[in-house]
């Protein structure tokens, strides 16, 4: 339920539902990670550094419960990126990719991070892998955006 509320942009409600899940099972890494995502989205919307730090804490708690939880590494990477720490973000995303090679969002994140760093060849590598996995499922505007990122990486 928490993940569904996050996808609807109802972050406060998601946090409340996830807190209930954690009351039942405090060792539930998915609930901790989803709390991290909700807090991250709220931090981005409000420009709130404290919420950003809380999101990082939740992702780290999820990883303390399950060090092989790729989604938590993906979220921690996104939080590091939002905090301006691209290198830490890349390391998290590489770890996520090692654990879950089919986690397509990580490919996109890595491509974008490397493009920002000026490492176009690496960016292109990840964008092309992302395109191979998801292109058929993207909307026309999303396809156009990805094609433009690939063009910029070349």
Which key features would you list for this structure?
154 residues, mainly alpha, 81% helix, 9 helices, Serine Threonine Protein Phosphatase 5, Tetratricopeptide repeat
Description:
With 154 residues, this protein is mainly α. Helix 4 packs antiparallel against helix 5 (70-82) and helix 7 (104-117) packs antiparallel against helix 8 (120-134). The relative contact order is 0.08. The protein has helices at residues 2-7, 11-24, 29-46, 49-65, 70-82, 86-99, 104-117, 120-134, 140-153. The termini are far apart. It folds into two domains: 1-87, Tetratricopeptide repeat domain (Serine Threonine Protein Phosphatase 5, Tetratricopeptide repeat); 102-154, no CATH class. 81% of the residues lie in helices and 0% in strands.
Q: What is the topological layout?
A:
Blueprint: H1 2-7, H2 11-24, H3 29-46, H4 49-65, H5 70-82, H6 86-99, H7 104-117, H8 120-134, H9 140-153
Helix pairs in contact: 2-3, 3-4, 3-5, 4-5, 5-6, 6-7, 7-8, 8-9
